[in-house]
Structure formats: structure tokens, C-alpha cells
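The step that takes the researchers longest sounds almost clerical: writing a folded protein down as plain text. Below is the pair of lines this work produces for a single protein:

——
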Amino acid sequence: MAQPNTAWDHHPEPLTVTSAPVPEYGSGSLADLLPTLAAGLGVPGMTAAISELTSADRNCVFLIDGLGWEQLRAHPEDAPFMTSLLATSRGGTGRPLTAGYPATTATSLASVGTGLPPGVHGLPGYTVRNPDTGELMNQLRWQPWTPPGPWQPYPTVFQLAHQAGVHAAQVSSPTFENTPLTRVALSGGTFLGRLTGEDRMDLAAEQLAAGDRSLVYTYFAEVDGAGHRFGVDSDTWRGQLMYADRLVQRLAEQLPPRSALYVTADHGMIDVPFDEDHRIDFDEDWELSAGVALLGGEGRARHVYAVPGASNDVLTCWREVLGEQFWVASRDEAIAAGWFGPKIDERVYGRIGDVVAAARDDVLLIASEREPKESAMVGNHGSMTPAEQLVPLLEVRS
């Protein structure tokens, strides 16, 4: 008797919304870091959410853009100093933090600086719809121009620390001093711009010593840039990782007394191959584009805004086409599952897509015509996989 053709009989079930690994909001996410440090400095209203951390009088957060936990662990020869600190991560537990969803720079920096999850601070994606205008708003580049205060009205932890008498400072590239993203996410105290990484490390150490209680933030972007352009296993990326490792060691060796240095990141990254199996082009797919008014987010973390009355049809279609590789949820399902945090502010609700799609597999939903530059990137991020979500929290104390 002929055997049945199992290839035709096989019908994999779509991924369930609740199977997505939700970030550790409230206990081990990026949004919990600065409130924990500020609580240890006696800043009113702050909660020490990351229970594993021990307070220090002077705290420095060094954020290396794009350096995920898995990428660091995979390259010990390129980052020997940070590798030696892996056991110190998250208060000596040797465990990482989670970035928050989506795992992307604008969202994560807002989570870090405000101490709030995306559903509250209101930057829930790379591009999201502005409910007041109906346009897509790029929250990294802040285009089109949108008044920053109403978009993100909460004070930053740096502002609250400064008001409480803590010496607060950010040491970063001068390019970022007056950007709207800096204003809504990282302002408060003193901004000091320095071009070179070495100058930033030296000045961050000086700023730590400038107060009996200090909260200092510094930043390095080039690991992320190299990953996007060349991939996270390229020689260029490895070179930037080596440089970042030397910067961490330089800062660690200059810590004043009673200091704690925390090295973390805003997201990890994965390389996605350039073929049709791994890169699905929305601009050439009539099924996925049917009923869609706006495509937001990014390749691994999409916000989909339907034309009026079409949201259920769009959700059904996206699940049928992508549901074995993406977690596909309605807005309310994603909110109920806690993807954006335990609560959603009313002003944020309409910024989230009618349909939200987060990649589980090594795939990308590109838009070659609408987003030519983003569609050409080698390294990508945004979703809830460990490679994107998990970030280190390395610690050095003096």
C-alpha cells in the first residue's frame, strides 16, 4: 500500500501569542535599571526593581548600542575584558537583562532614561503611527517633527535625580545633545559632548567623582552601526567590539571610590541572509499588503495599520502567511500578553499597530520600496528572541 504524502498532509500550527517570551518588566528589564540605581541614591519615588543589585554612591551606566548578551558570549577573544566580567552580570548572578519590546534603539533608550516600559513612555517602535496626524512617525530620527513634550510627557530619571541633589550627567557624542530623542529620554543634569570614545570614558570618570552621589550615563554607537552594515560576525563588527572592550577597561580603571560601573546595551542583533526564504518583501506581496494603510516598525517587529474596517481580515491574512515564523497578534492581544509592559497609557494605544508581528525565526519582513536603506541591512533586531532581547549588565565596583 502506498504511504501517504506527509509533506502535503503536514499543516503546522501558527505560533500562539502567549508563546512569545515577554520581557522581564518590573524585575529585570532595561526600564528597571535606572530606577534601581536612583533608589539606592535616595531619589524619591524610585523603586529598586532589580533585586540583585547593591547600591553605590556613584553610578555609571555605559550603554554599548547593539551589543547583545549572546553576541558578547560568542566573541570572547575579541572582548576579553568584558568576557571576564560575565559572571558579574545582574548583580553577580551571571544572568542578562531583557531589553523590552520592541528591542530597538529609540524604544530602549526611552526605557532606560525614563525607567518606564514602552506602553507608558510611548515610544513603542522604530516607526509608529501618530494618531493625531495619521502619519508614520520615526522615533529615532524624529521625523516628521512632532512636539517632544506631549509625545513623552514623563520626567527622566536623570531629571528626578538632579532635583534630589544627585549629580547627574550624560557624556555622549555632541551630535545627540539637542535631539528630541535625547530630550524625551535622557535629559536632566548636565550634557557633555565628546567626539572620541577615550574622551568620553575619561570625562565620565571625572563626572562620577564630581559629586558625593552621582548618576552618569555614557554611550558608544559604532558596534550597532557595524552590525547593521556588515553583520555581527564580520571583521568590521569584531573590530568595533574590540574597541568597545578597551573603552570599558579604560573607564573601569579610572573609577573613583564608592563607584559602580554598569555596562549594558539596548538590544542584540542577528544576521539575516539575502534570499527570498529569509527576506519577505511586503512591497511585492499582494496578500500581506491587502487592507494595509501603513506599515510601521521594522523588519523583525512590525506595526501594521489597517484601513478602516479591515483589521480582522489583515490579522487573519498575516497569521496565515507568516504565522509559522512570526508571532502575529492583534493590538489588544499584544497588550494583554504584556509585550509592551504591564500597562498602556491611553495616548499610546493608537500608536500600536492594529496587527503586531514579531519574528521568531531568522526572517525579515522588508519593504524594498518604502524602506530601501533598512531593507539592505545585514544585521537586524527588534523581536523577542534571545539574540535580540538579552543584554548584559556587567558590573565593576571600586
About this structure: The chain has 19 helices and 18 strands. The first helix runs from residue 6 to 9. The CA atoms of residues 22 and 338 lie 7 Å apart.
